[in-house]
Write a structure and sequence with these properties.
The complex is a heterodimer of chains A (about 575) and B (about 500). Chain A is built from 24 helices and two strands. Chain A is mainly α and about 575 residues long. The interface between A and B is large, with 60 and 74 residues.
């Protein structure tokens, strides 16, 4: 049963991708319908799959020796991430039917979106590291295609290639880790690595652990690879929702959560993971304070929230991290799609030109506020519970100053959340923007996500049961939702956090009254260069291009030089051979 | 000794070559030019299709009997795992290129020479890979080189193609002379030219090892010119970009790889001289990857960019073979041979798709201009098939799943990590980073074709024909299929790697 469901959940989106492509761009209506039908079917299958979770592989296909055995394992981690990818993905597709109406080349758009969703489910369900890498690379390819979908715009092209190259460099980490594991274990099975991690030579295990950390950081846009995600904002808004909530960036968190039991004993690994998460959480929250582009603020907030998830894994709680991932998926998709309807409606992403839009689009305003308050961690929305759980874990398991910084991050989040609500929906209109209302497809997606933002925290008990019963190596203990509520509400740390969140709101409110929400002083140059890492990226790109340019001089086009090349090659070979003889 | 069936693989293309030529030149005067050109095309296609029969028979014989050999006087011919793989590769690409050229070369002056030379080149290449003695192999090698010069300089009215042909001729000839000197040095030491006998003779105590090492260096550099090892590669970008597209596909897809096989055969006889050539292969591989990718990065002409990317792909193959030679891991050779086959498909497809676009944009408008990357803006709207197949080809070359190039690169990576040698692992990471670098020029090409604002050239483009589309569809299909089912090629790559390992004494 689980085998059939897994096959369906990967192949339905891929078949849909082919169907949309076959339908051709001359039938846009048909393409919209096909995309919706296939993605919704995949979402239904993914929810059914939650009921068939187990720790045993549901599919086993032996391949030739270089590729191992292809397995798919419907364990708790895999099925929850599959459900998130397929459900949020299908809502983004439904939203797209309205957002993308009238756009050219819908075939390419839906092909990539559906291919992306299928690849993400394959990635989290694969029990074979080679195929994890296989699907990992497909998600990179799809995100590239979607980020630069508007490819007549040089900014979109640049954002796409940046995302592709940075995540591919991270992919090299996954490749190296996988092959080091294979060369010592002789197997690509994830379960073999988890079961035998203690028997591996410690140098190999450390190499695998840190290679995977690089891969995860690049994929989830964590420090020091955080600079690609804000530039990926050139994508159509539903794609941003897809990348930020349903697919791409979750893959990095998945990788860390999956291998945490194997790597936790590696010296320095947990500390490094916590550092990566904390630095990402803080610097991107600082960036969100002053960004003047609606989608960029949300992008920074994604990096920041992913930082919390990474931090939680480093602090030892895979459960807290997955819980936050689930909740984040809903409120972040809600925020991006709501932002998408604002952008679709007024035709700009520039916060300086918005303002006072709440009166014109009350529905979008309301759902956006719900999502934003969840992001800020206001009770009883879903973001509150998972963020408190992470902070509780942090309070127990990490150095004090880490905890202080991560708490400060919560205050910063509250500040920029209120700032963005204010700038978009309240205050006076700063520009006479042409406006048209959101339609029913958009409202349907937004409504479902808003409801999700209210209720997904109730799934905590189910999530912890799934993870505790089907992940034999992780040692996660079952805890009911009621227990969680009691423990969070009774912890003094919770009230401290709420105080800090309130303080963030208050400062934001004061500044909003005084219209001091732009500018940024000393932060400005840091944010503009992604804390120096954008400049580093540019330097690398320019240097490599410079080498390419300089090397062109070696192609003289003159035969004399060409023949000299042949003879100098001969001399080099003779010299090396001579060294060998000596 | 009876002549084996596989000689048909060599004989049919070689015999049909003059027939095709004569059919184009002779014939009664009342036959119009158009109908005569049609006859030439059909005959060429027929010849290559007939060649598939001896291939199928050879495969059956090989699978039942293993390596086969025969000799005429002192000329030895042998069909082993490597020959079988290479013969299949040559035949497959040759068939598709002849089909493709039907429209592409139609009405060109000297069309009959084109097909005659192409068929001859195929026969000579298959002869080369089955040759079992050194001098005989050199003769086939020269024959292949001569036929390919004429094809590179086919557009004889174009100064640039004459120049490219000239450089190719002079550089290859330099390499050939070095090889010939190397062969004479081996003959002087071993007293025989049969490869399996040399391999035994060089282990005798009486031979001069230094002379054999010198001969090895001469083989490496002499054949290395054809393989385009950096810094012997300078002929390649000109030749690949100036030749007709079908020939670019042949040059990049099989000719340079045939040179590689010739180098392997020649070096294998010197294994007994107790030095691992694997180290040199890995060094040249690393240099080729880096130079190829960096040079490709700044190119504006599509075919030149693809030509430079061939350098880096030769680098991947060299690394795979080098790992196998150095540490005896057969998977490295298997991956390298799989990559060789995939490279034929991917680069062949890329050049044919570029050719298809050039046919639509330039040739039918009577222009022989070179296709720039910016000319391709918006090409996907008018030529969806050619744009899609070029995209798939370059993404496969860049090693993206689920395409063929990912799987063969993976096997090479895997073999490198299996050595558990830190230097080789570092080389593998270098290779992976090179793959990422290559996306820096492949991805923008794909992007350009899917723009909405078409370039001026695309606006005046003319339609395609089915003989151009069919090879693109077939090759695209196989590139995707092998990405999902890489095991499909094991029946060819495993015997080839076994043969390779036994040649190098494992």
């Amino acid at each position: 049963m689980a085998g059939i469901l897994i096959t369906l959940v990967i192949l339905l989106p891929w078949l849909g991708a082919l169907a949309v492509w076959v339908a051709r761009n001359s039938h846009p209506k048909m393409q919209h319908w096909l995309a919706v039908v296939f993605s919704v079917l995949a979402a239904i299958v993914s929810v059914l799959l939650l009921g068939s979770a187990s720790a045993e592989p549901a599919i086993r296909i032996p391949l030739s020796n270089a590729f191992g055995v292809l397995t798919f394992v419907p364990d708790g981690l895999g099925v929850t991430l599959t459900a998130i990818a397929a459900v949020i993905g299908s809502l983004a597709v439904i939203f797209s039917t309205e957002y993308m109406r009238g756009d050219q080349q819908l075939g390419r758009y839906y092909f990539l979106v559906l291919f992306f969703i299928g690849a993400m489910t394959g990635l989290v369900l694969s029990g074979n590291l080679l195929f994890t890498f296989f699907f990992w690379e497909i998600t990179a390819l799809c995100s590239y295609g979607l980020i630069s979908f508007y490819n007549d715009d040089p900014k979109a092209v640049a954002g796409g290639i940046k995302a592709l190259i940075i995540t591919q460099v991270g992919g090299v980490g996954l490749l190296a880790g996988t092959l080091v594991a294979f060369s010592t274990l002789g197997s690509f099975q994830i379960s073999d690595l988890l079961a035998n991690s203690a028997t591996l030579p410690s140098a190999s295990l450390a190499l695998i652990a840190f290679s995977f950390l690089i891969a995860a950081a690049a994929k989830s846009a964590q420090f020091p690879f955080h600079s690609w995600l804000p530039d990926a904002m050139e994508a159509p808004s539903p794609v941003s929702a897809l990348i930020h909530a349903a697919t791409m960036v979750n893959a990095g968190i998945y990788l860390l959560a999956r291998f945490y039991p194997a790597f936790e004993s590696v010296p320095g690994w947990r500390m490094s993971v916590m550092l990566v998460g904390m630095i990402s959480a803080i610097i991107s929250a600082l960036s969100a304070l002053i960004a003047a582009d609606l989608k960029r603020v949300l992008a920074y907030s994604t990096v920041s929230q992913l930082g919390y998830m990474v931090y939680a894994i480093g602090a030892g709680s895979v459960l807290a991290s997955q819980y936050h991932l689930l909740n984040h998926a809903f409120f972040k998709a809600l925020l991006f799609l709501a932002a998408g309807s604002v952008i679709h409606s007024v035709g700009t992403r520039d916060l300086r030109r918005m303002g006072g839009l709440g009166r014109k689009m009350p529905f979008v305003r309301n759902v956006f506020i719900i999502g934003a308050l969840a992001l800020a961690g206001v009770p009883i929305l879903n973001g509150f519970w998972s963020k408190e759980l992470i902070l509780e874990v942090s309070f127990e398991n990490s150095p004090v100053w880490f905890h202080i910084l991560i708490l400060a991050g919560a205050g910063l989040t509250a500040f920029y959340t209120l700032r963005i609500i204010w700038l978009v929906f309240f205050g006076e209109e700063r520009d006479a923007l042409h406006y048209h209302p959101a339609g029913s497809a958009m409202k349907l997606s937004l409504g479902i996500l808003a409801v999700g933002t209210f209720i997904t925290w109730l799934f905590f008990g189910g999530l912890s049961e799934l993870l505790s019963t089907t992940l034999p190596y992780s040692g996660i203990e079952y805890e009911s939702t009621a227990n969680l509520v009691v423990s969070i509400l009774s912890a003094p740390a919770t009230w401290l956090t709420l105080g800090i969140v309130a303080l963030g709101f208050a400062i934001s409110w004061v500044r909003a009254r005084g219209y001091r929400l732009f500018g940024g002083g000393w932060l400005m140059p840091l944010v503009a260069t992604s804390f120096g890492f954008d400049s580093l990226n540019q330097w690398i790109v320019q240097t490599v291009n410079g080498w390419g340019e300089d090397l062109r001089a070696t192609q003289t086009g003159q035969l004399n030089w060409n023949i000299l090349g042949i003879f100098s090659g001969l001399l080099v070979v003779l010299f090396i051979l001579w060294l060998g003889v000596k | 000794m009876n002549i084996m069936d596989f000689s048909g693989l060599i004989a049919i293309p070689l015999i049909s070559s003059p027939i095709v030529y004569l059919a184009g030149r002779l014939g009664s005067h009342d036959v119009t030019l158009h109908r005569r050109s049609y006859l030439v095309r059909v005959l060429a296609l027929l010849a290559v299709l007939i060649s598939w029969f001896p291939f199928v028979v050879s495969v059956q014989d090989f699978l039942t009997k293993g390596t086969m050999e025969f000799h005429v006087e002192t000329i030895w011919m042998r069909m082993d795992g490597i020959s079988l793989l290479m013969a299949g590769t040559v035949l497959l690409l040759g068939t598709l290129v002849i089909l493709f050229s039907g429209s592409y070369m139609s009405e060109e002056v000297g069309e009959e020479k084109y097909y005659a030379m192409l068929l001859a080149m195929m026969g000579l290449m298959i002869g080369l890979v089955t040759a079992a003695d050194l001098f005989n192999m050199w003769v086939w090698f020269e024959g292949m080189a001569i036929s390919s010069y004429l094809l590179v300089a086919f557009y004889r009215e174009q100064p640039a193609s004459i120049e490219a042909g000239m450089k190719y001729l002079v550089q290859s000839a330099t390499g050939s002379v070095l090889v010939l000197i190397g062969i004479s040095m081996v003959l002087a030491q071993a007293g025989t030219l049969n490869m399996s006998e040399i391999a035994k003779a060089v282990t005798n105590p009486g031979v001069n090892r230094i002379a054999l090492l010198g001969a090895g260096a001469l083989f490496m550099i002499g054949f290395g010119v054809k393989v385009a090892l950096v810094p012997l590669h300078t002929w390649l970008p000109d030749a690949h970009s100036q030749a007709p597209s079908g020939i670019s596909a042949m040059l990049s897809g099989v000719v340079i790889e045939i040179g590689l096989v010739a180098m392997l055969r020649a070096l294998s006889v010197l294994t007994g001289s107790a030095l691992s050539w694997g180290l040199l292969f890995m060094i040249f591989g690393a240099v080729n990857m880096l130079f190829g990718n960096l040079l490709a990065l700044r190119q504006t002409v599509v075919k030149r960019m693809l030509a430079y990317s061939s350098l880096s792909h030769i680098g991947y193959m060299l690394v795979g073979l080098g790992v196998a030679m150095y540490s005896g891991i057969a998977l490295g050779a298997q991956g390298a041979f799989f990559h060789l086959f995939n490279h034929m498909l991917m680069k062949g497809l890329a050049f044919l798709a570029v050719g298809a676009l050039m046919y639509g944009l330039f040739l039918q408008n009577n222009s022989h201009a070179s296709l720039k990357i910016k000319d391709l803006a918006g090409a996907a709207q008018k030529y969806p098939l050619a744009a899609l197949s070029l995209s798939i080809a370059v993404l496969a070359l860049g090693g993206m799943p689920p395409l063929a190039g990912f799987m063969s690169k993976w096997q090479i990576f895997e073999s490198g990590f299996q050595t558990q040698n830190n230097w080789i692992i570092a080389l593998m990471i270098f290779m992976a980073l090179n793959s990422v670098l290559s996306l820096g020029y492949y991805a923008p090409l794909v992007n350009m074709m899917y723009r909405k604002q078409p370039s001026q050239q695309v606006c005046c483009g003319k339609p395609m024909t089915w003989t151009i589309s069919l090879p693109l569809v077939l090759m695209t299909g196989v590139v995707v299929l092998l990405g999902f089912l890489p095991g499909l090629m094991n029946w060819l790559t495993v015997p080839a790697s076994q043969q390779f390992m036994s040649m190098f004494g494992y």
